Amino acid sequence: MNRETQPIPYAERGRMCAIVIIERMRPRFGLVLFLPLLLAAWLVGADHASAHDQLVGSNPSAGTDLHKAPTSLRLTFSDTVHDTGVAVRVTDASGRQLQSGDPVVADDVVTQRLESTKTPGTVRVVWHVSSADGHPVSGNFNFSINAAEAAGPTSAPKSAPTSKAPSSSGLQRTSGRSSDETSYSTSVPSFERPTDKTNNEPLLIIGIAVVGLLVVGGVAALIRLHARGDDADL
């Protein structure tokens, strides 16, 4: 006596087909997903590495030729720096270190008091700080001091006064001194902090697009492989 075969419900058929597809695609599916995840991890690491604090300005600035030795050095960074692990060394042309006391940290600005120097020439600045993410950052730059001003003003020979009225040479010395102060104040420009966050946007957008293309391509490849497997079974 023949028994009639009961038809399998469509829902059960769909579930069984899904199980078969998953079992066939499991080894390949892991490999296809691994590559986009690896690329995404690399992009996150690159973005994190570029987030370290950077020196965006200094006063005096790098390459500046000053007419007067500065009394302090100010370093401005792209983000807040830790007040521990900060070191600043300033050396004049003779090799004498000019830093006086410990550097002072206020948010993203590090200020170092300097001793006066009469040695003209190149001044070397070497700095080391800890960025907001705890990563150590260091760098260096140079500025110079004008030879005539660093040597100090030359005293004119004394002569007997002829009258009580102020001499023209005294007026010239006063005018020259104010001119030097003006030239020093204008030779150290103020810095505007650039927004460093916008530099990483193109890389992030390209990375997202590449990951999306890899995912779409992987799904398409899996569909083609599954279709070939069905044709082979037939």
TrEMBL record:
Its main location: other. One of its GO terms (biological process) is copper ion transport. Keywords: Copper, Membrane, Metal-binding, Signal, Transmembrane, Transmembrane helix. Residues 151-170 have a biased composition (Low complexity). Residues 52-145 form the CopC domain. The chain crosses the membrane at residues 203-223. Residues 171-189 have a biased composition (Polar residues). GO terms for molecular function: copper ion binding. It holds the Pfam family CopC. The keyword Transmembrane applies. It comes from the Bacteria. Residues 151-196 are annotated as: Disordered. It is found in: Cell envelope. InterPro entries: CopC/D, CopC_dom, Cu-Rt/internalin_Ig-like, Ig_E-set. One of its GO terms (cellular component) is periplasmic space. PANTHER family: INNER MEMBRANE PROTEIN YEBZ. This is CopC domain-containing protein. It comes from Flexivirga endophytica.
